[in-house]
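Protocol step 4 of 6.
Sequence for MFS transporter (Dyadobacter chenhuakuii) entered exactly as in the expression construct, tag removed. Do not edit the line below.
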Amino acid sequence: MIFTPKETLTEEEVKNGLNTVLKEGMTTEAMVTLAGGTFMVAFAILLGASNFQIGLLASLPTFTNIFQLVSVFLIRRYNNRRAVSVICCILARIPMVLLGAMPFFLGADAPVSLLLFFLFFYYLFGSIAGPSWNAWMKDLVPGDMLGTFFSKRSRYAQTLNVVLSIILAISIDYLRRHAPQYELYVYATMFMMAGVAGLAAVALLARVPEPRSYLPNENILKMFIKPLRDNNFQRLLVFNSLWLFAVNIATPFFTVYMLKTLGLTLAYIIPLTILSQLSSILTIGYWGKFADRYSNKTIISICAPLYVACVIAWCFVGIYTNLISNLALLAVIHIVSGSSNAGTNLALTNIGLKLAPSREAIVYLSVKNIVTSVFSSLAPLIGGYLADYYTLRQLRVIAEWSGPTLQKSFRLLLLHEWNFLFLIGAALTVVALQFLPRVREAGEVHKSVVKRIMRTSLKSNLRDYFVIDVLINWHSSLNNMLKINRVGSDDARRDE
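Step 5 output, structure tokens:
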């Protein structure tokens, strides 16, 4: 068979393979950027997509993960993870090319259902390729450098994403102002280019060597039940599922909110996205280093509350009509969420790899992806329904000042269709975090110890890690401010 695995890989083969995986990651990121969520949502809105259809669009990447069972079946039958990954990636990227060609044949009348049809197969074959790629990488990347390597791969990919996103945002904004009739076809061209970039990534992936793996020769149903009987892995599944449900009930609609409610153009939205990516790039290497040195669970316990704060902050965006104040708040949200998401996602991926036994990694990771996909795919659908439900409902919290010469009212909180959704998402993330302490990870170090060590490290590298320093110390800074205020109030009372 083509792509025959090797019994053992030399150190040189591993080194060359890892370098190729880095290049493949950047090429794949070019595809992801060109067909990125913001651009795809804008494209769907141009075609007249409803809130429910946008929710369905957001749920497809995770819904199709239930087909990862096919990946395990193919690997058991052929014992060739590279072949499964490469062939399925080819089948995934072709629909993206066809999706891009769609407007050139049907114009603006192209149905949203056809867009969803092509995306279904794009995500379907990508989901089948995923478990084989993950298990392949687990055997290829040395265990003591999982966090370091994948944070490096992510950092390179996101740097490319930033550069490419700037170019695309400037180009689209220019065309929207000078030739709006071509906007739909610009998106279509981008998606075709995404498909071509994806096929180029497959060519690189085919060159990466694969060490031979051995799956136990037992009933496939029993294999899938085994991870569910692993108590610790079961606890990870519960937390991961609840976390993804909470995150995905609101996150897919942030872009829709900025486009439709705030009326922002891509010229504003893409730079905000870039801010988030830059924050991720600056911090992900740091999260990866500490995840390897201490534990992934500790990184989650530090980063996840920061993300919860960001979701709550979305409820205050748009309270006032002033563009500058809204953009300032959005900038802070994107910076903090970029860093926190980088740490959380990296740690969630690595803890799954870490808790999966080496010989059964493909099964454990597939079960993890299948179970979590059910929750993360339902969330955007429920989110879309809730957004429609709250369309005609509002909650306003207003403070009023009335005096002889001045009467003034201040909006403290304004909840409507999207803000209700964001608040629900924030509440659910808090609930999900209550299940994290139940997960056990080897080498786990308490969060307070790691934070103290991180602060010490940051003081000696303050210029390089200014963003992380602010994020790590924000709890302490807030407590100190409150303490100072309390002391000042006590002193004032004593003086009286």
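Step 6, annotate. The mean pLDDT is 80.
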